[in-house]
Amino acid sequence: QVQLVESGGGLVQAGGSLRLSCAASGRNVYNMAWFRQAPGAERGFVAAIIWAGAITDYADSVKGRFTISRDNGKNTVYLQMNSLKPEDTAVYYCAAGRPTTQAMGVRTAYDYWGQGTQVTVSS
Length: 123
Hints:
Layout: E1 4-7, E2 10-13, E3 18-24, E4 31-37, E5 44-49, E6 56-58, E7 66-71, E8 76-81, E9 90-97, E10 110-113, E11 117-122
Parallel strand pairs: 2-11
Antiparallel strand pairs: 1-3, 3-8, 4-5, 4-9, 5-6, 7-8, 9-10, 9-11
């Protein structure tokens, strides 16, 4: 079992930056990802990173603006979000699992989820 706790969400103006953190309990050898869910929408993929950190994947809508990273010594995954847009407004969820590299963006490939943190970008 892995417990995930997100932090770092908040209110920011368009063009601003936020860094989300996801702290995992126990020994974390899982691939990790961030998903987000806006009101009335399905939970969608944002970014993922394998446990060794050498491979990452991003949704097209965030490429060049968001960066996922991890510190296995601290059992923490980060999502640096720059050049934020109002359409980035959502609840952001951290996830852990063992998807293949081809399935890193598939929601159902992840077994553990955090409670979510709200990100609101004002125009």
